[in-house]
Amino acid sequence: MAEVEETLKRIQAHKGVIGTIVVNAEGIPIRTTLDNSTTVQYAGLLHQLTMKARSTVRDIDPQNDLTFLRIRSKKHEIMVAPGNL
User: Fold this and answer.
1) Which end of the chain is more exposed for a tag (fewer CB within 10 A), N or C?
2) Which InterPro entries match (predicted)?
3) What DSSP string runs through the chain?
4) How confident is the model over 43-78, as pLDDT tens digits?
């Protein structure tokens, strides 16, 4: 668990990082640096989007899987690294 903590601290220390959220396989937040309402909102929406993106990747090639999802807007960037489900 110390390795996970160190990784999260390293990510959070990068310039411009607003927060980090770790969720379980069901999309329930288990660790966050954001306030509760923001965490719940992002976790729920990103879980749904990640599941849809994973499904799309598998529809294209059943041997493939989603390993990383990057979403950029003019103001923000969200990076999702889903684990094996």
Assistant:
1) N
2) DYNLRB1/2 (IPR016561), Roadblock/LAMTOR2_dom (IPR004942)
3) -HHHHHHHHHHHHSTT----EEE-TTS-EEEESS-HHHHHHHHHHHHHHHHHHHHHHHHH-TT-----EEEE-SS-EEEE-----
4) 999 999 999 999 999 999 999 999 999 999 999 999
- Looking at residue 6, its amino acid is E
Locate 20 and state its tokens.
């980090």
- Joined together, the tokens standing for residue 29 give 């937040």
**43: how many CB neighbours lie within 10 A of its CB?**
21
